[in-house]
Structure formats: structure tokens, C-alpha cells
Amino acid sequence: MNEPRLNHVQCLDARGLHRMAYWEWGDSANDRVLVCMHGLARQGRDFDTLARAMLPTYRVVCPDVVGRGRSDWLADPMGYVVPAYVADMVTLLARLHTESVDWVGTSMGGLIGLGLASLTGTPVRRLVLNDVGPAIEPAAIERIGTYLGQRMSFASFDEAVDYLKGISAGFGIRDPEQWLALTRPMLKPAGETWVLHYDPQIALPFRAVKPEHVAAGEAALWRSYDALRTPTLLLRGANSDLLSRETALAMTQRGPKARLHEFAGVGHAPMFVDGPHIDVVREFLLSP
């Protein structure tokens, strides 16, 4: 079975340098690159099944965004923001020695891709936005705020798996082995307990957003979206509480006029562990 290589790249932040981890699948000389970017409190191994399915067409690169997984934690937690993540991705792409990339981004990973794809001279050739758009529903923000950054420890691995399953019901996953595959990289041992594999302080910028900032942020994201010239596929869990159908439909009418595909029985967010979900992505990325 194909397994990824763990690599690191140094990136600049307000206090100095930090190392960002990334998982690389396939031939490192392949200049056809697919970047897969995870959600707010997740990590790059979320894309193992998708990555295997996209070989050997692509070299697949799945970063652990700083503060998550095998990447460093920031000295200044207010650096856990999307513009800084976009800057880290520019550094990573320089390391990969490729002129262009295709991009699959789930939730926060989609916003990072949107930021990068909207830049003049962007290297992003095709963009997949997975259950995210310029307008994020308040109910989802409230739900995420109930668990993000909680300093939790678990007496056993199974207890931790059950907890993550409870807060991730929107994934729509029923198969126990799929749950375990997604959960193992999310946990690390701490003495006799288990803890989540991310810096709890990623929640600080999230909680610092005031209501008056939300409208300005949404307007800025719509401007970025309207600036896209990249062919775009928008995926939505039909039961999503983060991306409304109204926003999704608006995204098909403006900017790049994204192609919309909804997955029944899924909320926030599809995780690409099922063949039909992967097929939608593959068809879009490999179509002429």
C-alpha cells in the first residue's frame, strides 16, 4: 500500500521561523501537483484515501497547517489566521518546484485556497472548495466554538475516538474502520492519556472575531471569490450547517460560476473516504 513521506519546510512568522509539516505522496519529480488542505482543527492525513486514488496522475501534497499535526506551534497564537496560512503555502509551493497546482480545500483549507487562487499570477490551476464559501453560517460558528481549543485529555484511545466521532457527526461516516483511519492522526499520547494533535490556542483568533468584523470579512471574501479566474468545483454536504444552499447557489452565479455538487446524507464536511465522493473530484480535476 502506498504511504506518504513526511517533509518539512521553514516559514516566516511575526516572531521568527516555524516548521510546517507536509505529507507527500507519489513521485517527487512529478510536476503535476495536487495540494489537499484540511479544515480548522484537522490535519493532512485526512486525505489519505483521496491521495491514493489520485496516484499516479499526481504528486499529492497534504500539509499540516501550522499549529496542527506534525507542524510547529506558533509563539504568537494571533498568527493563526488565513492570510498567514496563505503566505506559508507560497513558501511551500516554492519548495515543491512546480509552476502550477490543483487545489482541494476543506472548510478552512478552502478559504486558504480561495485566498491563494485570487492573487494575481496565482499558481492554482483548478480549485475545489469543499463545503465552504464567502458566507459562513452563524450556527456553524457557534457549534465549532463549543469545542475548539478545549484542553482535553482522554483516559484511553477509544474514549478519544468516541469524542471525535461525536463532534464530527457531519462527516456522515458509518464505517468504523474509516473512523479509525481518520482519527489516529488526530491524537497523540501524553503520558498515560491521549490528547488532540493541535495547539489549543488556534481558538484565540477564532474567538477574537467581533460581530462587527463578520460583515467586513464576508465582503472581503466575496471580493476574492469574484476575482477568481480559476475553474472551480464547489462541494456541499446537503445537511451542512456551515455553507447554506443560498450561498452555494450564489457561488454558481458570480465570480468563477462554480460547478456545484451536493452529497446527500452528509453535513459539514465531506471527507473523501467514499468512492462516489472521490469520483466527483477526479472527474473535475482530470477533465479537459
Give structural notes.
This protein has helices at residues 48-54, 82-96, 108-117, 138-145, 157-167, 176-183, 203-208, 211-226, 245-251, 275-286; strands at residues 5-13, 16-25, 33-37, 59-64, 101-106, 124-130, 153-154, 187-190, 193-196, 232-237, 259-263. With 288 residues, the chain is α/β, with parallel strands linked by helices. It has one domain (5-137, 210-286): 3-Layer(aba) Sandwich (Rossmann fold). It has an eight-stranded mixed β-sheet with strand order 1-2-4-3-5-6-10-11, with helices on both faces. Strand 1 (5-13) and strand 2 (16-25) form a beta hairpin. Helix 2 packs across helix 3. It starts with a strand and ends with a helix. The model has no long low-confidence stretch (mean pLDDT 96).
* Weakly predicted, low-confidence segments: none
User: Please, what is the average pLDDT?
Assistant: 96
How many helix segments?
A: 10
Count of DSSP strands: 11
Based on secondary structure, the structural category is alpha/beta
Question: What is the CATH domain class?
Answer: Alpha Beta
What is the radius of gyration? 18 Å
Would you give the CATH topology?
Rossmann fold
What is the overall shape?
globular
Major β-sheet annotation: 8 strands, mixed
Question: How much strand?
Answer: 15-25%
Helix content: 25-40%
CATH architectural grouping:
3-Layer(aba) Sandwich
Q: Can you say what the CATH homologous superfamily is?
A: Alpha/Beta hydrolase fold, catalytic domain
Tally of domains: 1
Written as H for each helix and E for each strand, in order along the chain, the element string is EEEHEHEHEHEHHEEHHEHEH
Distance from first to last alpha carbon: 29 Å
* Order of strands, widest sheet: 1-2-4-3-5-6-10-11
